[in-house]
Amino acid sequence: MYKILHKETLGDVTKLLVIAAPEVTRKAQAGQFVIVRIDEHGERIPLTIADYDREAGTITLIFQEVGKTTMHLGTLEPGDELATFTGPLGHPTEIEDYGTVIFVGGGVGIAPTYPIARALKEAGNTVISIIGARTHELLFWEDKMRAVSDELIVCTDDGSYGRKALVTEPLKELLEQRDGEIARVWAIGPAIMMKFCAKTTKPFGVKTIVSLNTIMIDGTGMCGGCRVQLTDGAKFVCVDGPEFDAHQVDWDLLMARQRFYLEEEKQAVEQWRHQCRLEVASG
Amino acid sequence: MAELTNRERLHIPRQAMPAQDPLARRANFDEVALGFTPELAQQEAERCLQCAKPHCVEGCPVEVLIPEFILALREGDIEGAVRAMKEKNNLPAICGRVCPQETQCEAVCVLAKKGEPVAIGRLERFVGDYELEHHVCPLERAAPTGKRVAVVGCGPAGLTCAADLGRLGHDVTIFESLHKPGGVLVYGIPEFRLPKSVVNGEIDYAAECLGIKVHPDAVIGRLYTIDELLNEQGFDAIFLGTGAGLPTFMRIPGINYNGVLSANEFLTRVNLMKGYLFPEYDTPVKVGKRVAVVGAGNVAMDSARCSLRLQALHAQETSEEMGEVHIVYRRSRVEVPARAEEVHHAEEEGVIFDFLTNPVEIYGDEHGNVCGIRCICMELGEPDESGRRRPIPIKGSEFDIDMDMVIMALGTRPNPLVFNEAGGLERTKWGTAVADQETGRTTKPQVWAGGDVVTGAATVISAMGAGKRAAADIDRFLRGEINPWAT
C-alpha cells in the first residue's frame, strides 16, 4: 500500500497528491509515468509524474477530476492509501542542451511539463514556456513554471486571466519572431491541443515532442490498448513512449481511441455521483 | 473391496467429469468442470494398472509420482495421495485444471492404446482440491541457507522455482509487475476454467509454508534492473520467469480501429480487472454483438468463451438476442493447438468455428469503430518447419463478414523490459532469453531463466518443469557445488 502524505486543492477539479513511494522515487525521472489503482475494485490508470523528491521518497501527482477514478482519487485525504502504485514507467525525456526550447503546457498537462522544463533548464537550455487553460480556474503552478523558465506566457481561452488566446497563438508568434532559433518544442496537454501545436510547428520544421496519455491497463507492453499510429508504424505508448514526435502521430485515430469507453465512463460517473449523494443523505 | 484383476479394471469405463450444463454455464463465470466426487475418484483410480514401468511419469514435465498417488487414492488413503503428489508438484490444483494431459501423461498411458487412458488430470485436480481445503501436507522448509534468490515474474515458472528453492531453505523474493501474483494464471486464464480462489489459495499456502515474499507492482527493468538486484540488492541468484506477455497484431489494414483488441487486453480486462462485473468493478469491457477471435490456441478459446458469457449476461439484462462468436483460424480442425477439452467446451457453448479462413483487412465506420472483416479462404499445402501443413490462400476467394469486435489471439512474445541494463544477458532473434534447456542457465552469471521467456508461448506445465529444473541447478550453485560461469 502507498500512503498519501499531502494533498493540495489547485482548483475546483484539479488536485495534487504527494505519495510515499521510496522505491519508485529512487528511479523516477522527468517524462515518466506511474500506474495507480485506488482499491480492490479500482481500475489501473496512468498518471504522468509531476514532481519527485528523492530524499523524502515521494512522488507528486496532479490530476483533473474528469472520470470516476479521478473523482474518487480527489476524495482521498492524507493518511489514505493507494492499493497500486507502479513505476516509474515509460522512457524518461532525453535531457540535453538543445539551445532554446519552448514548452507548451495545457490544463492538467502543465503538471508533467514542469519537471521536464526544470531538467532542461538545469541542462543549460533557454526555456520559454506557454501555459494555458480554458479558464483561470483551471490554471496552476504559474509560479513554479516561472521559476524554471526564462520567459513565461500565460493565456486562457476565455480571457479570464493572462492573455485571451489559445496556446497555439503565442507559439506561432514565437516561431515567427525567432525563426531558426527554436531547437525543439514540447507540447503536453489535451490531445486536441497537442494536435494543433503539431500543426503550428510543422511549417517551421521544428522538432516537436508530445507526451501521450492513452487508455492503458498494465503499462508494461502487455495489453496493447495504448497503441498509437505513427507514420513509421504502430507503437505502444507505455513502453515506446510516452513521448513521441508530434509530426508523426495520427491524431484523429488517437482521439477516436480515447473515446472508445466514453459510454462506460459516463455510466461509472453517474453511479459514483449517485453513491456520493446517498452517502451525504445518510449523513 | 476385494482386489480387482487387471481384466476387471479394464472393464471399468473412464469416469466422466461432472460439468455445468452448457447453456446455463455460458451465462455465468463459474467453473465449468465441477470436479470428481470421492466415489468417482475412487472408481477412476481403480482403472490404473500400476504398470511396472509407468510411461505416464515420463510424459509429465515435472515427473509427478502418478502410480503412487493413484494407488493411495485406490486404497482410500487420500492424505497419502496428497503426499505423493506434492513430492514433485507444488501446485496440483492448478495443474489438474490447465495441463494438456491428452498430449502428456494420458497420451502415453498404457490404457490409451486400446481404449481411454486413466483420467490422471481429473484425479490430480481431486487431490489438489482436497489439499487446498484440508492442508494435510504443508510444504516443509529445510534449514535456512542464508542465500537470497530473486524470482522475477510470479507465473507458473516463477512460482514453481520459488517453491522448490523455498523448500531447500533459500530465502526467496518474487518480483511481480502486476498487482496480484499468478501471472497468466490470473490475467489470462478465466475464472470458469481456473477459479482465482484456487490460484490464490495455492500461492498463499506455498508462500506461507516456505516464507516466500511476494513484491507486487515491481516492474524489473524499471523499478530495479537485473544488475541492481545482483549488485545493490544483494541477491545471490536470479531466476527470470517473465513469460511471454507481448501481444502480436496482424499486419493488415484497419488493425487500430476501436474494437480490435489483443487477447491479452481483453482477457486482462475480464479476468484480472473483473471487467465482467463492471460497474461494481471500475474497469469496463465492451461486449461485441458479433465477435471474431483470430487464432485457435487456448488463449483464443478463452477469449471466445469469455465473449459468449459477456454476450449472454448482456442479453439477460437487456432481453436482447445473443450475438455470435466466431473462431477464425487459417488452418483446419486437425491443427487446432488448443487443449481438446477447451475446444469441446467452446463448441458445446455455441462458439462458431471458421476453419481455413484468414482475415486480410479490418473495416471501420465513420467513428473509427470496427464494423467488419474481409477474409480469404485457405487450403493446406505441404508441411512447414513446425510439421503442420502450411496454409495457402485461395486466389479470389475473399469474402466480407460483419463484426463489431475482433480479438487477436495469435501468440505472444517475451517482454523486453526485463532485459534493460542486464549486461551479458543474451537473447535470440525472437526475443527469447538464451538459456540451457536442462538447467535454465543464461549467458549472464548468477542468472537463470525458464518458461515462456525462453521457449516462447507454451504451456503452464512446461513452464513449471523449467522452473523446477532451474531451481535444482540454482540450489547446487548456492551450495557451492558448481559454478557454471567460472572461467
Concise structural overview:
The complex is a heterodimer of chains A (283) and B (487). Chain A is an alpha/beta fold.
Question: Which helices and strands occur, and which strands form pairs?
Answer:
The complex is a heterodimer of chains A (283) and B (487).
Chain A lengths: L1 E8 L4 E7 L1 H6 L5 E5 L7 E4 L2 E3 L4 E7 L3 H8 L5 E2 L1 E6 L10 E7 L3 H13 L3 E8 L8 H6 L3 E6 L6 E2 L3 H10 L4 E7 L2 H11 L6 E4 L15 E4 L2 E4 H4 L2 E3 L5 H8 L3 H20 L2
Parallel strand pairs in A: 9-10, 9-13, 10-11, 11-12, 13-14
Antiparallel strand pairs in A: 1-2, 1-7, 2-6, 3-4, 3-8, 5-6, 14-17, 15-16
Helix pairs in contact in A: 5-6
Chain B lengths: L5 H5 L11 H4 L12 H8 L9 H4 L7 H9 L3 H9 L5 H7 L21 H15 L13 E5 L3 H12 L3 E5 L8 H4 L8 H15 L2 E3 L10 H6 L5 E4 L5 E2 L12 E3 H10 L17 E5 L3 H21 L5 E5 L11 H10 L2 E3 L2 E8 L5 E14 L5 E5 L5 E4 L2 E4 L3 E2 L33 E3 L2 H4 L4 H19 L9
Parallel strand pairs in B: 1-2, 1-4, 2-3, 4-16, 6-14, 7-8, 7-14, 8-9
Antiparallel strand pairs in B: 5-15, 10-11, 11-12, 11-13
Helix pairs in contact in B: 3-5, 5-6, 6-8, 7-8, 9-11, 9-17, 13-14, 14-15
Features:
heterodimer, A: 283 residues, alpha/beta, 5-stranded antiparallel β-sheet, 31% strand, B: 487 residues, 5-stranded parallel β-sheet, 16 strands, 15% strand
Structure description:
The complex is a heterodimer of chains A (about 280) and B (about 475). Chain A is an alpha/beta fold. Chain A has helices at about 20-25, 70-75, 110-120, 140-145, 170-175, 190-200, 235-240, 250-260, 260-280, and strands at about 1-10, 15-20, 35, 45-50, 50-55, 60-65, 80, 85-90, 100-105, 125-135, 150-155, 165, 180-190, 210, 225-230, 235, 245. Chain B is an alpha/beta fold. Chain B has helices at about 5-10, 20-25, 40-45, 55-60, 65-75, 80-85, 90-100, 120-135, 155-165, 185, 195-210, 225-230, 265-270, 300-320, 340-350, 450-455, 460-480, and strands at about 150, 170-175, 215, 235-240, 245, 260, 290-295, 325-330, 350-355, 355-365, 370-385, 390-395, 400, 405-410, 410-415, 445-450. The longest helix of chain B is centred in the middle third of the chain and has 21 residues, at about 300-320. Chain B starts with 5 loop residues before the first helix and ends in a 9-residue tail after the last helix. Classes of the chains: A alpha/beta (about 280), B alpha/beta (about 475). The interface of A and B includes residues 219, 234 and 239 of A.
